Amino acid sequence: MSAAVEKLEHNMAKFTIEVPADEFEKCVEKAYQRNKSKIAIPGFRKGKVTRQVMEKMYGKEVFFEDAANIAIPEAWEKTYEESEEDIVSSPKIDVVSIKAGEPFVFTAEVALNPKAKIGQYKGIEVEKTDTSVSEDEITAQIDKERDNQARMITVDREAKKDDQAIIDFEGFMDGVAFDGGKGENHALTLGSGTFIPGFEDQVIGHKAGDEFDVNVTFPEDYQADHLKGKPAVFKCKLHEVKEKEVPALDDDFADDAGFDSVDEYKADVKKKLEEKKENEAKNKKEQAILDKLISEAEMDIPEAMLVSAARQSLEQFSQQLMMQGMSIDQYYKFTGLNENAMIEQSKPSAEKRIKSRLVMEAVADAEGFTATDEDYDKEIEDMAKSYNLKAEDLKNMMRPRDEKSIRKDIVIKKALDFVIENAVEK
After folding, report:
1. In which band, very low, low, confident or very high, does the pLDDT at 47 lie, cut at 50, 70 and 90?
2. Do 157 and 187 touch, CB atoms closer than 8 A?
3. On the CB side of 43, how many CA atoms lie within 13 Å of its CA?
4. N or C: which end of the chain has fewer CB within 10 A?
Protein backbone atom coordinates (compact mmCIF):
# COMPACT_ATOMS: atom_id res chain seq x y z
CA MET A 1 0.00 0.00 0.00
CA SER A 2 1.21 3.52 -0.77
CA ALA A 3 -0.07 6.95 0.13
CA ALA A 4 0.73 10.43 -1.13
CA VAL A 5 -0.42 13.63 0.53
CA GLU A 6 -1.29 16.94 -1.09
CA LYS A 7 -1.64 20.05 1.08
CA LEU A 8 -4.73 22.13 0.29
CA GLU A 9 -5.91 25.58 1.35
CA HIS A 10 -7.31 26.34 4.81
CA ASN A 11 -5.35 23.59 6.57
CA MET A 12 -6.88 20.77 4.54
CA ALA A 13 -5.00 17.84 2.97
CA LYS A 14 -5.85 15.14 0.44
CA PHE A 15 -4.32 11.67 0.76
CA THR A 16 -4.25 9.52 -2.37
CA ILE A 17 -4.07 5.92 -1.23
CA GLU A 18 -3.29 2.96 -3.48
CA VAL A 19 -4.15 -0.58 -2.43
CA PRO A 20 -2.18 -3.18 -4.46
CA ALA A 21 -4.21 -5.40 -6.76
CA ASP A 22 -3.41 -8.58 -4.80
CA GLU A 23 -4.55 -6.99 -1.49
CA PHE A 24 -7.74 -5.72 -3.09
CA GLU A 25 -8.36 -9.21 -4.49
CA LYS A 26 -8.35 -10.51 -0.90
CA CYS A 27 -11.01 -7.91 -0.02
CA VAL A 28 -13.11 -9.05 -3.00
CA GLU A 29 -12.88 -12.64 -1.75
CA LYS A 30 -13.91 -11.49 1.75
CA ALA A 31 -16.91 -9.69 0.25
CA TYR A 32 -17.93 -12.86 -1.61
CA GLN A 33 -17.58 -15.02 1.51
CA ARG A 34 -19.71 -12.57 3.52
CA ASN A 35 -22.47 -12.52 0.92
CA LYS A 36 -22.57 -16.06 -0.46
CA SER A 37 -25.01 -17.36 2.15
CA LYS A 38 -27.55 -14.76 0.96
CA ILE A 39 -27.18 -15.51 -2.75
CA ALA A 40 -29.97 -17.50 -4.43
CA ILE A 41 -29.83 -18.39 -8.15
CA PRO A 42 -32.14 -20.87 -9.92
CA GLY A 43 -30.41 -24.22 -10.27
CA PHE A 44 -28.14 -23.67 -7.26
CA ARG A 45 -28.76 -24.28 -3.58
CA LYS A 46 -28.74 -21.08 -1.54
CA GLY A 47 -25.21 -20.34 -0.38
CA LYS A 48 -23.64 -22.73 -2.89
CA VAL A 49 -23.18 -20.35 -5.82
CA THR A 50 -19.47 -20.02 -6.59
CA ARG A 51 -17.81 -16.67 -7.04
CA GLN A 52 -16.90 -17.55 -10.63
CA VAL A 53 -20.57 -18.14 -11.48
CA MET A 54 -21.59 -14.86 -9.86
CA GLU A 55 -18.93 -12.90 -11.72
CA LYS A 56 -19.84 -14.60 -15.01
CA MET A 57 -23.50 -13.70 -14.56
CA TYR A 58 -23.17 -10.18 -13.17
CA GLY A 59 -19.63 -9.13 -14.05
CA LYS A 60 -16.37 -9.06 -12.10
CA GLU A 61 -17.53 -5.81 -10.45
CA VAL A 62 -20.37 -7.52 -8.57
CA PHE A 63 -18.49 -7.53 -5.25
CA PHE A 64 -16.41 -4.36 -5.79
CA GLU A 65 -18.59 -2.06 -3.65
CA ASP A 66 -18.49 -4.38 -0.64
CA ALA A 67 -14.78 -5.00 -1.23
CA ALA A 68 -14.13 -1.25 -1.25
CA ASN A 69 -16.00 -0.93 2.07
CA ILE A 70 -13.62 -3.53 3.48
CA ALA A 71 -10.45 -2.10 1.95
CA ILE A 72 -10.99 1.59 2.72
CA PRO A 73 -11.16 1.45 6.56
CA GLU A 74 -8.14 -0.89 6.75
CA ALA A 75 -6.06 1.21 4.32
CA TRP A 76 -7.06 4.52 5.94
CA GLU A 77 -6.31 3.23 9.45
CA LYS A 78 -2.80 2.25 8.35
CA THR A 79 -2.30 5.57 6.56
CA TYR A 80 -3.48 7.49 9.62
CA GLU A 81 -1.16 5.63 11.97
CA GLU A 82 1.88 6.04 9.71
CA SER A 83 1.27 9.65 8.69
CA GLU A 84 3.28 12.41 10.34
CA GLU A 85 0.47 14.89 9.68
CA ASP A 86 -1.66 16.06 12.61
CA ILE A 87 -5.07 14.91 11.32
CA VAL A 88 -8.07 16.37 13.18
CA SER A 89 -11.15 15.26 11.25
CA SER A 90 -12.80 12.20 9.82
CA PRO A 91 -11.87 11.59 6.16
CA LYS A 92 -14.06 12.47 3.21
CA ILE A 93 -13.62 9.47 0.90
CA ASP A 94 -13.78 9.41 -2.91
CA VAL A 95 -13.01 6.38 -5.07
CA VAL A 96 -10.62 7.19 -7.91
CA SER A 97 -10.10 3.80 -9.59
CA ILE A 98 -11.57 0.35 -9.00
CA LYS A 99 -10.87 -2.20 -11.75
CA ALA A 100 -10.25 -5.94 -11.85
CA GLY A 101 -6.58 -6.84 -11.70
CA GLU A 102 -5.49 -3.25 -10.98
CA PRO A 103 -4.65 -1.35 -7.79
CA PHE A 104 -7.63 0.13 -5.95
CA VAL A 105 -7.17 3.90 -5.57
CA PHE A 106 -9.13 6.29 -3.38
CA THR A 107 -8.65 9.71 -1.82
CA ALA A 108 -9.23 10.83 1.76
CA GLU A 109 -9.64 14.56 2.40
CA VAL A 110 -9.04 15.62 5.99
CA ALA A 111 -8.43 18.69 8.14
CA LEU A 112 -4.98 19.26 9.59
CA ASN A 113 -4.44 20.86 12.98
CA PRO A 114 -3.87 24.58 12.34
CA LYS A 115 -1.21 26.64 14.06
CA ALA A 116 -2.30 29.68 16.01
CA LYS A 117 -0.36 32.95 15.96
CA ILE A 118 -0.62 34.41 19.44
CA GLY A 119 0.23 37.67 21.10
CA GLN A 120 1.80 38.24 24.51
CA TYR A 121 1.10 35.29 26.80
CA LYS A 122 3.23 36.21 29.81
CA GLY A 123 1.97 38.64 32.42
CA ILE A 124 -1.64 38.67 31.25
CA GLU A 125 -3.67 40.91 33.54
CA VAL A 126 -6.75 39.39 35.15
CA GLU A 127 -9.20 40.63 37.76
CA LYS A 128 -8.48 39.39 41.27
CA THR A 129 -11.36 37.44 42.79
CA ASP A 130 -12.17 37.62 46.48
CA THR A 131 -12.24 34.08 47.92
CA SER A 132 -12.85 34.99 51.54
CA VAL A 133 -15.89 33.53 53.27
CA SER A 134 -18.10 35.66 55.50
CA GLU A 135 -20.06 34.59 58.57
CA ASP A 136 -23.28 35.33 56.67
CA GLU A 137 -22.26 32.89 53.94
CA ILE A 138 -21.46 30.21 56.53
CA THR A 139 -24.83 30.77 58.21
CA ALA A 140 -26.68 30.67 54.88
CA GLN A 141 -25.02 27.36 53.96
CA ILE A 142 -25.81 25.84 57.36
CA ASP A 143 -29.41 27.06 57.12
CA LYS A 144 -29.65 25.40 53.71
CA GLU A 145 -28.44 22.11 55.18
CA ARG A 146 -30.86 22.41 58.09
CA ASP A 147 -33.71 23.12 55.67
CA ASN A 148 -32.76 20.00 53.67
CA GLN A 149 -33.15 17.92 56.81
CA ALA A 150 -36.40 19.53 57.90
CA ARG A 151 -39.51 17.38 58.39
CA MET A 152 -43.13 18.20 57.87
CA ILE A 153 -45.36 17.91 60.95
CA THR A 154 -49.15 18.15 61.12
CA VAL A 155 -50.51 21.22 62.93
CA ASP A 156 -54.00 22.10 64.14
CA ARG A 157 -54.35 25.70 62.97
CA GLU A 158 -55.17 27.80 59.95
CA ALA A 159 -52.84 27.36 56.95
CA LYS A 160 -50.31 30.08 56.32
CA LYS A 161 -47.61 30.85 53.81
CA ASP A 162 -44.88 28.16 53.51
CA ASP A 163 -47.16 25.50 55.01
CA GLN A 164 -47.96 22.34 53.10
CA ALA A 165 -51.69 21.84 52.48
CA ILE A 166 -53.03 18.38 51.65
CA ILE A 167 -56.08 19.06 49.48
CA ASP A 168 -58.68 17.59 47.15
CA PHE A 169 -59.76 19.88 44.34
CA GLU A 170 -61.89 19.84 41.21
CA GLY A 171 -62.14 22.65 38.69
CA PHE A 172 -65.34 23.85 36.99
CA MET A 173 -66.04 26.28 34.16
CA ASP A 174 -69.65 27.49 33.89
CA GLY A 175 -70.59 24.72 36.32
CA VAL A 176 -69.03 21.95 34.19
CA ALA A 177 -65.94 20.04 35.34
CA PHE A 178 -63.02 20.22 32.89
CA ASP A 179 -60.34 17.66 32.08
CA GLY A 180 -57.14 17.86 34.10
CA GLY A 181 -58.69 19.97 36.81
CA LYS A 182 -59.05 17.29 39.48
CA GLY A 183 -56.66 16.08 42.18
CA GLU A 184 -56.86 14.13 45.43
CA ASN A 185 -54.61 14.34 48.50
CA HIS A 186 -52.36 16.75 46.64
CA ALA A 187 -49.51 18.21 48.71
CA LEU A 188 -49.39 21.93 47.88
CA THR A 189 -46.75 24.22 49.38
CA LEU A 190 -48.44 27.56 49.91
CA GLY A 191 -46.47 30.41 48.38
CA SER A 192 -44.55 28.13 45.99
CA GLY A 193 -46.32 29.54 42.94
CA THR A 194 -46.84 26.07 41.46
CA PHE A 195 -50.60 26.51 41.03
CA ILE A 196 -52.58 29.08 39.05
CA PRO A 197 -51.98 32.65 40.30
CA GLY A 198 -54.32 33.40 43.18
CA PHE A 199 -55.10 29.76 44.04
CA GLU A 200 -52.63 29.32 46.90
CA ASP A 201 -53.54 32.66 48.48
CA GLN A 202 -57.16 31.49 48.84
CA VAL A 203 -56.12 28.29 50.65
CA ILE A 204 -54.32 30.34 53.29
CA GLY A 205 -56.53 30.90 56.33
CA HIS A 206 -58.40 27.60 56.12
CA LYS A 207 -58.11 24.69 58.57
CA ALA A 208 -58.22 20.91 58.16
CA GLY A 209 -61.78 19.81 57.39
CA ASP A 210 -62.74 23.05 55.62
CA GLU A 211 -64.52 22.85 52.28
CA PHE A 212 -64.37 26.01 50.17
CA ASP A 213 -64.31 27.46 46.65
CA VAL A 214 -61.28 29.01 45.01
CA ASN A 215 -62.00 31.48 42.20
CA VAL A 216 -59.22 32.05 39.67
CA THR A 217 -58.62 33.14 36.08
CA PHE A 218 -56.24 31.11 33.96
CA PRO A 219 -53.29 33.11 32.52
CA GLU A 220 -53.42 34.13 28.85
CA ASP A 221 -50.23 32.11 28.23
CA TYR A 222 -51.52 28.93 29.92
CA GLN A 223 -50.39 25.75 28.16
CA ALA A 224 -53.92 24.41 27.58
CA ASP A 225 -55.57 26.47 24.82
CA HIS A 226 -59.13 25.79 26.00
CA LEU A 227 -58.34 27.29 29.43
CA LYS A 228 -56.36 30.39 28.44
CA GLY A 229 -57.79 33.52 30.03
CA LYS A 230 -60.88 31.67 31.28
CA PRO A 231 -62.38 32.07 34.80
CA ALA A 232 -62.77 28.88 36.83
CA VAL A 233 -64.01 27.73 40.24
CA PHE A 234 -62.17 25.01 42.15
CA LYS A 235 -64.13 23.19 44.83
CA CYS A 236 -61.57 22.27 47.50
CA LYS A 237 -61.38 20.24 50.68
CA LEU A 238 -58.45 20.74 53.05
CA HIS A 239 -57.46 17.47 54.76
CA GLU A 240 -54.31 18.44 56.59
CA VAL A 241 -52.02 21.38 57.32
CA LYS A 242 -48.32 20.70 57.77
CA GLU A 243 -45.50 23.03 58.74
CA LYS A 244 -41.80 22.60 58.27
CA GLU A 245 -39.84 21.77 61.41
CA VAL A 246 -36.20 22.72 60.92
CA PRO A 247 -33.68 21.00 63.23
CA ALA A 248 -31.88 23.22 65.72
CA LEU A 249 -28.21 23.96 65.19
CA ASP A 250 -26.85 22.09 68.19
CA ASP A 251 -24.39 19.32 69.03
CA ASP A 252 -26.93 16.66 68.01
CA PHE A 253 -27.19 18.20 64.53
CA ALA A 254 -23.38 18.39 64.31
CA ASP A 255 -23.12 14.77 65.44
CA ASP A 256 -25.53 13.66 62.71
CA ALA A 257 -23.27 15.44 60.23
CA GLY A 258 -20.24 13.56 61.58
CA PHE A 259 -18.67 16.19 63.85
CA ASP A 260 -18.04 16.42 67.59
CA SER A 261 -19.33 19.96 68.03
CA VAL A 262 -21.08 22.84 66.30
CA ASP A 263 -17.78 24.76 66.10
CA GLU A 264 -16.12 21.84 64.32
CA TYR A 265 -19.06 21.58 61.94
CA LYS A 266 -18.92 25.32 61.18
CA ALA A 267 -15.18 25.10 60.54
CA ASP A 268 -15.77 22.33 58.00
CA VAL A 269 -18.51 24.32 56.27
CA LYS A 270 -16.16 27.31 56.06
CA LYS A 271 -13.37 25.17 54.62
CA LYS A 272 -15.60 23.71 51.94
CA LEU A 273 -16.94 27.14 51.00
CA GLU A 274 -13.38 28.44 50.69
CA GLU A 275 -12.40 25.49 48.49
CA LYS A 276 -15.44 26.08 46.30
CA LYS A 277 -14.65 29.78 45.92
CA GLU A 278 -10.99 29.06 45.18
CA ASN A 279 -11.95 26.58 42.47
CA GLU A 280 -14.42 29.04 40.98
CA ALA A 281 -11.78 31.78 41.07
CA LYS A 282 -9.26 29.49 39.37
CA ASN A 283 -11.73 28.60 36.64
CA LYS A 284 -12.66 32.25 36.18
CA LYS A 285 -8.98 33.22 35.96
CA GLU A 286 -8.26 30.42 33.50
CA GLN A 287 -11.17 31.42 31.26
CA ALA A 288 -10.19 35.11 31.36
CA ILE A 289 -6.65 34.21 30.26
CA LEU A 290 -7.91 31.99 27.44
CA ASP A 291 -10.37 34.67 26.29
CA LYS A 292 -7.55 37.22 26.19
CA LEU A 293 -5.24 34.92 24.23
CA ILE A 294 -7.99 33.93 21.79
CA SER A 295 -9.01 37.56 21.19
CA GLU A 296 -5.47 38.43 20.07
CA ALA A 297 -4.75 35.19 18.17
CA GLU A 298 -4.95 34.40 14.46
CA MET A 299 -5.98 30.90 13.35
CA ASP A 300 -7.64 29.31 10.33
CA ILE A 301 -9.91 26.55 11.61
CA PRO A 302 -11.10 24.17 8.86
CA GLU A 303 -14.84 23.55 8.74
CA ALA A 304 -14.19 19.78 8.74
CA MET A 305 -12.33 20.13 12.05
CA LEU A 306 -15.22 22.08 13.54
CA VAL A 307 -17.79 19.51 12.36
CA SER A 308 -15.71 16.63 13.74
CA ALA A 309 -15.45 18.32 17.14
CA ALA A 310 -19.19 19.05 17.18
CA ARG A 311 -19.94 15.45 16.17
CA GLN A 312 -17.72 14.20 18.98
CA SER A 313 -19.73 16.29 21.45
CA LEU A 314 -22.93 14.78 20.06
CA GLU A 315 -21.54 11.26 20.51
CA GLN A 316 -20.66 12.02 24.13
CA PHE A 317 -24.14 13.44 24.70
CA SER A 318 -25.64 10.31 23.14
CA GLN A 319 -23.65 8.12 25.53
CA GLN A 320 -24.87 10.18 28.49
CA LEU A 321 -28.45 9.70 27.33
CA MET A 322 -27.92 5.95 27.06
CA MET A 323 -26.71 5.89 30.67
CA GLN A 324 -30.00 7.56 31.60
CA GLY A 325 -32.01 4.97 29.66
CA MET A 326 -32.79 7.09 26.58
CA SER A 327 -31.57 6.72 23.00
CA ILE A 328 -30.53 9.65 20.84
CA ASP A 329 -33.39 8.80 18.44
CA GLN A 330 -35.88 9.13 21.29
CA TYR A 331 -34.32 12.49 22.19
CA TYR A 332 -34.74 13.64 18.58
CA LYS A 333 -38.38 12.57 18.67
CA PHE A 334 -39.11 14.42 21.91
CA THR A 335 -37.29 17.62 20.92
CA GLY A 336 -38.04 17.73 17.20
CA LEU A 337 -34.31 18.05 16.49
CA ASN A 338 -32.11 15.88 14.26
CA GLU A 339 -28.41 15.08 13.93
CA ASN A 340 -27.61 18.03 11.68
CA ALA A 341 -29.43 20.48 13.95
CA MET A 342 -27.61 19.14 17.02
CA ILE A 343 -24.25 19.45 15.25
CA GLU A 344 -25.04 23.07 14.32
CA GLN A 345 -25.99 23.79 17.95
CA SER A 346 -22.71 22.28 19.14
CA LYS A 347 -20.48 24.26 16.78
CA PRO A 348 -20.05 27.45 18.90
CA SER A 349 -18.87 25.55 21.99
CA ALA A 350 -16.76 23.24 19.81
CA GLU A 351 -15.10 26.26 18.21
CA LYS A 352 -14.28 27.75 21.62
CA ARG A 353 -12.70 24.46 22.76
CA ILE A 354 -10.64 24.25 19.58
CA LYS A 355 -9.42 27.85 19.89
CA SER A 356 -8.51 27.33 23.55
CA ARG A 357 -6.50 24.26 22.65
CA LEU A 358 -4.76 25.90 19.70
CA VAL A 359 -3.56 28.91 21.71
CA MET A 360 -2.20 26.56 24.40
CA GLU A 361 -0.41 24.52 21.74
CA ALA A 362 1.16 27.76 20.52
CA VAL A 363 2.33 28.60 24.06
CA ALA A 364 3.74 25.08 24.45
CA ASP A 365 5.65 25.42 21.18
CA ALA A 366 7.00 28.83 22.18
CA GLU A 367 8.20 27.53 25.56
CA GLY A 368 9.42 24.19 24.24
CA PHE A 369 7.26 22.11 26.56
CA THR A 370 7.34 18.34 26.05
CA ALA A 371 5.73 15.30 27.63
CA THR A 372 8.45 13.09 29.09
CA ASP A 373 8.11 9.35 29.54
CA GLU A 374 7.75 10.01 33.27
CA ASP A 375 4.87 12.42 32.55
CA TYR A 376 3.21 9.84 30.33
CA ASP A 377 3.62 6.99 32.82
CA LYS A 378 2.13 9.11 35.61
CA GLU A 379 -0.85 10.01 33.44
CA ILE A 380 -1.39 6.34 32.62
CA GLU A 381 -1.25 5.48 36.33
CA ASP A 382 -3.87 8.12 37.15
CA MET A 383 -6.12 6.94 34.31
CA ALA A 384 -5.70 3.31 35.35
CA LYS A 385 -6.87 4.11 38.89
CA SER A 386 -10.03 5.77 37.57
CA TYR A 387 -10.75 2.74 35.36
CA ASN A 388 -9.82 0.28 38.12
CA LEU A 389 -7.13 -1.26 35.91
CA LYS A 390 -3.44 -2.01 36.21
CA ALA A 391 -1.28 0.71 34.68
CA GLU A 392 0.68 -1.79 32.60
CA ASP A 393 -2.51 -3.34 31.22
CA LEU A 394 -3.88 0.07 30.25
CA LYS A 395 -0.57 1.04 28.67
CA ASN A 396 -0.62 -2.10 26.52
CA MET A 397 -4.11 -1.20 25.33
CA MET A 398 -2.98 2.17 24.00
CA ARG A 399 -2.64 2.58 20.24
CA PRO A 400 0.04 4.92 18.87
CA ARG A 401 -2.62 7.57 18.24
CA ASP A 402 -3.87 7.25 21.85
CA GLU A 403 -0.39 7.79 23.25
CA LYS A 404 0.12 10.76 20.94
CA SER A 405 -3.15 12.32 22.13
CA ILE A 406 -2.32 11.79 25.81
CA ARG A 407 1.14 13.30 25.41
CA LYS A 408 -0.38 16.32 23.67
CA ASP A 409 -2.86 16.76 26.55
CA ILE A 410 0.04 16.71 29.00
CA VAL A 411 1.86 19.43 27.07
CA ILE A 412 -1.27 21.59 26.88
CA LYS A 413 -1.76 21.23 30.64
CA LYS A 414 1.82 22.43 31.18
CA ALA A 415 1.19 25.42 28.92
CA LEU A 416 -2.02 26.33 30.74
CA ASP A 417 -0.34 26.06 34.14
CA PHE A 418 2.47 28.26 32.82
CA VAL A 419 0.25 31.13 31.64
CA ILE A 420 -1.82 30.97 34.85
CA GLU A 421 1.29 31.12 37.03
CA ASN A 422 2.60 34.08 35.00
CA ALA A 423 -0.66 36.03 34.98
CA VAL A 424 -0.94 39.21 37.01
CA GLU A 425 -3.97 39.69 39.25
CA LYS A 426 -5.19 43.25 39.74
Report:
1. low
2. no
3. 3
4. C
| Contact indicator for 44, 53 with CB cutoff of 8 Å | yes
Residue 217 φ/ψ, nearest 5 degrees: -125, 125
At residue 190, the 3 state secondary structure works out as: coil
What is the reported pTM? Answer: 0.75
Residue 412 CB-density burial (10 A; 0-12 exposed, 13-18 middle, 19+ buried): buried
Residue 352 clears pLDDT 90, i.e. is over it: yes
pLDDT at 43 over 70: no
Beta pairing partners, 156 = none
Q: What is the pLDDT of residues 271-327, one digit of tens each?
A: 999 999 999 999 999 999 999 999 999 999 999 999 999 999 999 999 999 999 999
Query: Closest Cα partner for 235 from 216, 219, 218?
Result: 216
By percentage, how much of the chain surpasses pLDDT 90?
87
The CATH number of 151-245, from 3.10.50.40, 3.40.50.150, 3.30.2310.40, 3.30.830.10, is 3.10.50.40
Cβ-based neighbour number of residue 125 at 10 Å: 12
3 state SS of 145? helix
Could you tell me if 1 and 78 are in contact, meaning their C-beta atoms sit under 8 angstroms apart? Answer: yes
Q: Which CATH architecture has domain 2-111?
A: 2-Layer Sandwich (3.30)
